[in-house]
Design goal:
308 residues, alpha/beta, Aminopeptidase, 6-stranded mixed β-sheet, 10 helices, 6 strands, 48% helix, 13% strand, elongated, hydrolase, N-acetylmuramoyl-L-alanine amidase
Length: 308
C-alpha cells in the first residue's frame, strides 16, 4: 500500500517577500514608463505660445532699426577696374555690401536691405525710392575712390550728410559727373586735420539753422564706422567729412558714404581684390554701425519724426 506524500507547508514569510519584490518591480517599471512618456509628450504649458496680435507685431517691428546698404555702380556703370582688370568698382561694392548685410541681419533688432542685390544700374531716383520704401533709419552707401590722373592717393574716408534733404532729385542728373567733381574736391583735402576741422565748423553752422534742432547722428555714425573699420584693416585714415555727395543730397535720415579705398592706387586695389580684406572691411563697417546703434538707439527713434 502506497504511502501518501506529505504536503509541503506554505512558507508565508517567503511568499510575502516575493509579493513585496514584485510590487517594487512593478512600481519601478511604472515610473520608468511615466518618465519616458513625459520626455516624449510636450509640456503644454511650455510649448503653448501666445498668439501675437497684429498690433503687437507692428510694435515689435517699430522697435527695430531699418538699415539700407547701397552698393554704388552696377550694370553698364562698371566704374574703374583694378590695375590688372580683375575686378570693377561695381563688383567690389556689391560684395562688400552683401557681407555687411550678412553680418547685420544676424541681429534680431535690425532689418537690413540692399538697394541692389544684383548687377543692376539703378538711377538716383530709383535708389531714393527704395530707401524711402524701406523706411530707412540708417543708410550706408558703399563706394570706392579713384584718381584719373594719378595713383598717389590712398586710404579710406567716410562722408556724412547734413540731413537736410533737397525738395526733389534733379532730372537727368549725371551721377558720373557728380562723382568726378567730388573726387577731385576730395583729393584737394588730403590733410585729414583740415578736413575734419572744416567738417566740424560747417556742421556747427548748419545746426544753428536747423529748426528741428537735430543731433548730428550722421556725423556720429560716420565717426563710429570710420574708426571701427580702421581697427580691422591697415589702410590710411582720410577721416570723416561732411559733404552731401550723390545720394546723401536727397535723404534726411542718418546717412554716410563709405569710400573703401582708392581703386586707382595699386596697393589699395590689391587689397580690395583680396577676399579677406573685403571681409575685414565689411566687419568693420558692421561693428561700427552696431556700436552706433547701441549708443544712440533712443535718439534714432526720436529722429524718425524728421524723415518718416
Amino acid at each position: 500500500m502506497l504511502k501518501k506524500k506529505k504536503r509541503r507547508k506554505l512558507n508565508k514569510k517567503k511568499l510575502f517577500l516575493v509579493i513585496i519584490v514584485f510590487a517594487i518591480i512593478l512600481a519601478l517599471i511604472f515610473k520608468i514608463f511615466t518618465f519616458a512618456f513625459s520626455l516624449i509628450k510636450p509640456d503644454n504649458n511650455q510649448t503653448k505660445e501666445k498668439v501675437k496680435t497684429a498690433q503687437e507685431i507692428e510694435n515689435e517691428e517699430e522697435r527695430k532699426i531699418n538699415i539700407t546698404i547701397d552698393p554704388a555702380k552696377g550694370g553698364k556703370n562698371k566704374g574703374l577696374a583694378t590695375k590688372d582688370g580683375g575686378m570693377y568698382e561695381k563688383d567690389i561694392n556689391l560684395e562688400i555690401a552683401k557681407l555687411i548685410k550678412n553680418n547685420l541681419e544676424k541681429h534680431s533688432d535690425v532689418n537690413v536691405k540692399l538697394t541692389r542685390a544684383y548687377d543692376d544700374d539703378l538711377s538716383l531716383e530709383d535708389r531714393k525710392k527704395i530707401i524711402n520704401e524701406n523706411k530707412t533709419d540708417i543708410l550706408i552707401s558703399v563706394r570706392l575712390n579713384g584718381q584719373s590722373s594719378s595713383d598717389e592717393a590712398s586710404g579710406i574716408d567716410t562722408y556724412y550728410n547734413s540731413e537736410n534733404v533737397k525738395s526733389e532729385v534733379k532730372k537727368n542728373s549725371n551721377i558720373s559727373n557728380v562723382e568726378a567733381k567730388n573726387t577731385n574736391k576730395d583729393l584737394k583735402n588730403s590733410n585729414k586735420q583740415d578736413s575734419d576741422s572744416k567738417a566740424d565748423s560747417e556742421y556747427d553752422g548748419d545746426s544753428t539753422k536747423n529748426k528741428d534742432d537735430r543731433k548730428p547722428l550722421s556725423k556720429y555714425l560716420a565717426s563710429s564706422v570710420q574708426t571701427t573699420t580702421l581697427s580691422f584693416i591697415d589702410m590710411k585714415d582720410r577721416g570723416v567729412v561732411k559733404n552731401d555727395i550723390d545720394i546723401l543730397s536727397y535723404v534726411k535720415m542718418p546717412a554716410i558714404v563709405m569710400h573703401c579705398g582708392f581703386i586707382s592706387n595699386k596697393a589699395d586695389a590689391e587689397k580690395l581684390e583680396n577676399n579677406k580684406h573685403r571681409s575685414d572691411i565689411a566687419n568693420g563697417i558692421s561693428e561700427g554701425t552696431l556700436l552706433f546703434i547701441d549708443n544712440y538707439r533712443g535718439e534714432i527713434f526720436k529722429d524718425r519724426i524728421n524723415y518718416r
